[in-house]
Amino acid sequence: MAPQRQLFSFCIFSVLSFSTITSGYGGTLPDNKPSTQRFAPMYSYKLGKSVPQEAGPERFSLHTLGSTLQSKRMVTNPFHPIHNVSGARPSTPAPISVDKFGAKGIDHTDDTKAFQKAWLEACSSNGAVVLLVPPHRSYFVKQFTFSGAQCKSHITMQIHGTIMAFEDPKTYHFPNKSKQQYWLTFERVQNLVVEGPGTINGNGEKWWQSSCKQNNITRTLVPNCNNDAPTAVTFKTCNNLTVHNLNFEKAQQKHVSFENCTDVKASRLRINTSEASPNTDGIHVTETKNIDISMSRISTGDDCISIMGGSQNVYVANIACGPGHGISIGSLGRGGSEDHVSDVTVFGSRLTGTMYGVRIKTWPGGSGYATNITFQMIQMDNVTNPIIIDQNYCDTATKVINGECKPPPLQKNTAVKVHNVMYQSINGTVSKDGQAIVFNCSSVPGGACEKIVLDDVRLEKGGAAVCSNVKPTYSRVDLPLNRCPNQ
Ligand SMILES: *[C@@H]1O[C@H](CO)[C@@H](O)[C@H](O)[C@H]1NC(C)=O
Ligand SMILES: *[C@@H]1O[C@H](CO)[C@@H](O)[C@H](O)[C@H]1NC(C)=O
Ligand SMILES: *[C@@H]1O[C@H](CO)[C@@H](O)[C@H](O)[C@H]1NC(C)=O
Ligand SMILES: *[C@@H]1O[C@H](CO)[C@@H](O)[C@H](O)[C@H]1NC(C)=O
Ligand SMILES: *[C@@H]1O[C@H](CO)[C@@H](O)[C@H](O)[C@H]1NC(C)=O
Ligand SMILES: *[C@@H]1O[C@H](CO)[C@@H](O)[C@H](O)[C@H]1NC(C)=O
Ligand SMILES: *[C@@H]1O[C@H](CO)[C@@H](O)[C@H](O)[C@H]1NC(C)=O
Ligand SMILES: *[C@@H]1O[C@H](CO)[C@@H](O)[C@H](O)[C@H]1NC(C)=O
Ligand SMILES: *[C@@H]1O[C@H](CO)[C@@H](O)[C@H](O)[C@H]1NC(C)=O
Ligand SMILES: *[C@@H]1O[C@H](CO)[C@@H](O)[C@H](O)[C@H]1NC(C)=O
Question: pTM (2 decimals)?
């Protein structure tokens, strides 16, 4: 029996406000709403088992959606003196505005130094402090790391205006080309809040044009292409982090990445970038434990959400995704690496016009596992591959020659094991050329897909199920044509 998880659950109020968000995308949530029922992940596959809990740490309402101008977090500590900024009373320290440090918010004026000074001021403050990016202007900022190792207190960064990257890749400096590159990084900041309602814009079109993974119709490789495009915003080694009510646009590559963090809440993020942009994942999670991602809508050129190795206890709920490549676990095991992902729940979400719905992808030759994964209450509209496990994943940037991934995996006889995966209450339509279910599992002994369960799955149109090396368990499953062989 699985120990019951302390994952938060939803009240009907949050669901109602979510359908209001998604209606901007031409629809509302499915009629069969999660209602007042509360769900816990069901790793033991005892169907209908749910644990009533208190509502989640944040209750969303229509009222709070648009009005976060006032920070809820301006708490003060009576035992610490507070910087007397602009004559404010100690009990309500005035926000530290980047303008005070000379930020101009004028087209193409470099405000990086002002951000740096403002961050140092906030970081050295003894009491809880608000760092403000004022409204109505666009602040151009170069690569910058908001380093928190020396910070003394809780910082809330309020972004009301826009933080903008310079568009020319030549303005970036990467000392080590073989590493992942970054634009804005929050590193080792504890108890950080980053909130909107403003925008972070990666201004990434020039990067897209030189990408090796052209995601447009021709799919031709660009001469002198590069894969160096930076991630727009990275949170690295942050514990107790909240990121909410922010807009992200035109990331150079991924939009938001959580790396090596614990206890993260990401909510009400709006990511809207061209479908033709390459590698522009919406929210990327790697080596991160205890993360809730909720109430967000994501339109982009790659995965709306990607969950990578080292991630544990990931809860994704109320996401509207599309266009994009859906919600993915992986790719795992790339280049023969060992990856572990466990306890992932994707709940109450809607995918519209995406290439994939819910996907698990692993490279041949890797090792480790993806386990205890639940996809529940998910609506698919016109999705090409709504349910997919691919243990023979080979990125399009790598060549597939005669059905083999080139360069070939270092070890041929290993696979990232995929087990305990539950698909429950998944409804919707498959696109014209799509396939409802693809389980392309590994033939490696002991590495294949195990304990794959489908319950209450109804997918209309599109092609049949395509399966190899898997024997799923079905109940209440209604697919267009056939299904994979039963156990
Ligand atoms: C997956 O869930 C099972 C059943 O609850 C549990 O025994 C196992 O430890 C979990 N695996 C991981 C890696 O968390
Ligand atoms: C804060 O600054 C104002 C104006 O500069 C001053 O009058 C006040 O005494 C200061 N308060 C504290 C607690 O330093
Ligand atoms: C660049 O980064 C890679 C990967 O982290 C590392 O192996 C290599 O030593 C680094 N090279 C330099 C010059 O720092
Ligand atoms: C987490 O961070 C928030 C915001 O800074 C703070 O109010 C809260 O006390 C922190 N929680 C813990 C357990 O430190
Ligand atoms: C699409 O591909 C062509 C040919 O490589 C390239 O010139 C163009 O910039 C690409 N468009 C986008 C939006 O990436
Ligand atoms: C990951 O986080 C832990 C603490 O949470 C830290 O000790 C470690 O140095 C971090 N690893 C990297 C690669 O930053
Ligand atoms: C997303 O961006 C496109 C192009 O800028 C725009 O037409 C569309 O309205 C945006 N969608 C949302 C939901 O903001
Ligand atoms: C799918 O449809 C069936 C029958 O109409 C319903 O029982 C189930 O709750 C629906 N699930 C979702 C996720 O929409
Ligand atoms: C379904 O998606 C395809 C692209 O995958 C698009 O061409 C088509 O117009 C969509 N159909 C509907 C009904 O939205
Ligand atoms: C599984 O993936 C391999 C490699 O991409 C491909 O050649 C094969 O056709 C796929 N099998 C199914 C059943 O889709």
Answer: 0.82
